[in-house]
Amino acid sequence: MTNEEARLEKARASAAQMRTMTDLLIPILLAAIVLPLIGELYLVTFEPEPWATEVGAPVAVLIKLISYAPALAAAAAVIVLRAVLFEYQEGRYLSAKASAAFQRAGYWALAAFLLKMFVVPIAVSLLGGQAFSWRFDPLDAALMAFALSVVMIGGVLEAAAAQLKSENDQIV
C-alpha cells in the first residue's frame, strides 16, 4: 500500500468514525433542543408567566416556537452533514452529492444566523413578547463567518466535482 493509499484509507476511517459519532450525537442534540422546547410550551400554556397571560396562550406558544427556530436550523445543518460523511466514508470525496450536502449545511447554518439575528427579535417584538432588542456578540460573527465559509467551500467542491465528471465524460 502506497503512502497516498494509506492516507486515503485513514481519511475514510476518520469519516466513518465521525459518521458514527454524528449518528450517536444527533438524537442527543435534538433532545437538547426539543425537550426544553416542550417544557417551555407546557409552561406558557398551563402555567403562564404574566407576559404569556397578557399576549394569550396561542401567541405565547408561537413566540416560543419562533425563539427555538435558530437552534433547530443549526441542528438541521449538523444533520445534513451526515450525508457528506457517508460519501467521504465511501471514498467519494468529490461527489456531487457530498458537495451539495456540504453547501446545504452551510445554508442551514446561515439560516440559523439570520433567524437569530433578525427574524426572532423582530417577530417576538411584533407579537408582543418583549420590546425589540438587537444584540450582536462575537459568537454571532463566528457563526456567520462559519456559515459563509461552508457555503463557499461547498460551492468550490461542487464545481470541482462537475469539472471532474466533465473530464471523465470526455475520456469515455
Number of helices: 5
Largest sheet composition: none
Euclidean distance between termini CA atoms: 28 Å
Order of helices and strands: HHHHH
Poorly predicted runs of 5 or more residues: none
Beta-strand residue fraction:
under 5%
Count the strands?
A: 0
**What Rg do the Cα atoms give?**
21 Å
Mean pLDDT across every amino acid position: 89
**Silhouette:** elongated
Q: How would you classify the helix and strand content by structural class? A: mainly alpha
Q: Roughly how much helix do the residues carry, as a percent range?
A: over 70%
Descriptive notes:
- By secondary structure, this protein is mainly alpha-helical.
- The protein has 5 helices and no strands.
- It has helices at 3-46, 50-55, 57-89, 96-127, 138-171.
- The longest helix is centred in the N-terminal third of the chain and has 44 residues, at 3-46.
Topology:
Layout (H helix, E strand, L loop, with lengths): L2 H44 L3 H6 L1 H33 L6 H32 L10 H34 L1
Helix pairs in contact: 1-3, 3-4, 4-5
Question: What's the short story on this structure?
Answer:
With 172 residues, the chain is mainly α. The protein has helices spanning 3-46, 50-55, 57-89, 96-127, 138-171. The protein has five helices and no strands.
